[in-house]
Design brief:
With about 450 residues, the protein is mainly alpha-helical. It folds into 3 domains: about 1-130, MgtE N-terminal domain-like (MgtE N-terminal fold), CATH 1.25.60.10; about 145-250, CBS-domain (Roll); about 270-455, SLC41 divalent cation transporters, integral membrane domain (Tetracycline Repressor, domain 2, Orthogonal Bundle), CATH 1.10.357. Helices cover about 65% and strands about 5% of the residues. The chain has 21 helices and 6 strands. It has helices spanning about 1-5, 10-15, 20-30, 35-40, 45-55, 55-65, 70-80, 80-90, 95-100, 105-110, 115-125, 150-160, 185-190, 215-225, 245-260, 275-305, 305-310, 315-345, 350-385, 390-420, 425-455, and strands at about 145, 170-175, 180-185, 210, 230, 240-245.
């Protein structure tokens, strides 16, 4: 789909060059705003402005919301002041709040001044809520109905005032501004036109507090499997609604941040390509320094077994293969546990069940890799003619070491996220670097301890 959209760009640019604006309007007449945003992003800055001037204001506002941040900033800079004002006034309040959150404060102040008095009041009220709170996600565009109305009155009201609503899937019943219930449009459509709204109410409306963290909104949408949820204050006064599209944006941000942290990088506040170089270095340096210092422990552990390494070079040759297995197994376990914590599938109280599972899983995985390592030793010995009585002991050393190292890695990988969470640290941010250091140090200790016990008097 993306490729087919890109193909049309030269034709659009040619139409603009020929000032054939009527044809452009016809071409884009039935396009979805999300597709328009893709095309606009690929045009030159001057041509972007032309396209936005040709689009109806409501379509332009929706298209603008789908554009990436660079394109949005370019349009705000290049468009005429009156065009920017029309665009911002027609944007949905939640999309506009998201835009303002990503712009410098001086730019936001200038843009807010271009809003109408009504839209300015809405924008300021949403921006006054704490950052990362539910209030920053909500929109005041929804449909209210009254419990004493008939279904027919409710339908007439929807036809009159529903055009600007963020969603018509859910209608909200209020009394003196207080949320009483919510009714799905399906119930309205299937009810008798003369039936009163209160007769189809169940008074079971679920709502979010305006000060709730956005993560709670994600959890509630997942738990209730909803398209929209009302937002209320402490007195249950209805302030706005949150729709699924806004929650999906939060989910994407959370997933991106978690992935970055698990990779040993502090979460980026901007798209990767827009992050200043020194800021990028600063956010990556912390855990690199921690890992580098952790490498001193690895070097110390190797120093303890310098004599054994000198006597049996083959042990050193196989060491990276064996040690990395523990780190890989630990990373797998950590990934599973961190994700399970994020989804609420496990809690700190489940630690003993997790240990038991990971010990069993680690043993079986270690045994699998151990058998492969054992076969590798025998194949190598037979192929290069070095097969002798010590080959059996070396193969056994590799196998036992892998079982122990992989088991230790899975235990460490599963427990470290829980320990980090217990002490108030972010499991995703802290686990990966510590697992790498732990696996290297304890892997070396386990490997050479097993080798010393089994190979003394033969290879050592």
């Amino acid at each position: 789909m993306l490729a087919s959209l890109i193909v049309i760009i030269p034709e659009i640019e040619e139409l603009i060059a020929n000032r054939d604006f009527a044809t452009i309007r016809v071409v884009f007449e039935d396009w979805e705003p999300v597709d328009l945003a893709v095309v606009v992003a690929e045009l030159s800055e001057q041509n972007r402005v032309v396209i936005f001037r040709l689009l109806p204001t409501d379509i332009a506002a929706e298209t603008f919301a789908y554009c990436d941040r660079d394109t949005q900033e370019s349009l705000l800079h290049d468009m005429a002041k009156e065009d920017v004002a029309a665009l911002l006034n027609d944007m949905s309040p939640d999309d506009r709040t998201q835009l303002f959150e990503e712009l410098p404060s001086n730019v936001v102040a200038e843009l807010i001044n271009q809003l109408s008095a009504e839209e300015r009041a809405v924008a300021l009220s949403l921006l006054n809520y704490p950052e990362d709170s539910v209030g920053r996600l909500m929109t005041p565009d929804y449909v209210i109905i009254k419990k004493h109305w008939t279904v027919q009155q409710a339908l007439d009201h929807i036809r009159t005032y529903g055009k600007d609503s963020e969603t018509l899937n859910v209608l909200y019943v209020t009394e003196h501004g207080t949320l009483i219930d919510e009714i799905h449009i399906r119930e309205i459509l299937l009810a008798d036109p003369e039936q009163r709204i209160e007769e189809i109410m169940d008074y079971k409306a679920e709502a979010l507090l305006v000060t709730d963290p956005q993560e709670k909104a994600v959890d509630e949408f997942r738990r209730l499997d909803r398209y929209a949820l009302p937002v209320v204050d402490a007195h249950r006064k209805l302030l706005g609604i949150i729709t699924l599209d806004d929650v999906l944006d939060v989910v994407e941000e959370q997933a991106t941040e978690e992935m970055q942290k698990f990779g040993g990088v502090q979460a980026l506040d901007e798209p990767y390509i827009d992050v200043p170089l020194f800021e990028l270095v600063r956010k990556r340096a912390t855990w690199l320094v921690v890992l580098f210092v952790g490498g001193f422990l690895t070097a110390t552990a190797l120093g303890i077994y310098a004599d054994q390494i000198e006597k049996a070079v083959l042990l050193a040759l196989l060491m990276p293969l064996i040690i990395s297995s523990g780190g890989n197994a630990g990373s797998q376990a950590a990934t599973l546990v961190v994700r399970a914590l994020a989804l609420g599938e496990i809690t700190l109280g489940d630690w003993w069940r997790i240990v038991r599972r990971e010990v069993a899983a680690g043993f079986m995985l270690g045994l699998l890799l151990g058998v492969l390592g054992l076969v590798r030793v025998y194949v190598t010995a037979w192929s290069d003619g070095s097969y002798n009585a010590s080959t059996h002991l070396l193969a056994l050393t590799i196998m036992i070491s892998l079982v122990c190292i992989v088991t230790a890695g899975t235990i460490a990988g599963s427990m470290l996220p829980l320990v980090m969470k217990r002490f108030g640290f972010d499991p995703a941010a802290s686990s990966a670097p510590f697992i790498a250091t732990f696996s290297d140090v304890f892997g070396i200790l386990i490997y050479f301890t097993v080798a010393t016990i089994l190979l003394s008097g033969s290879l050592l």
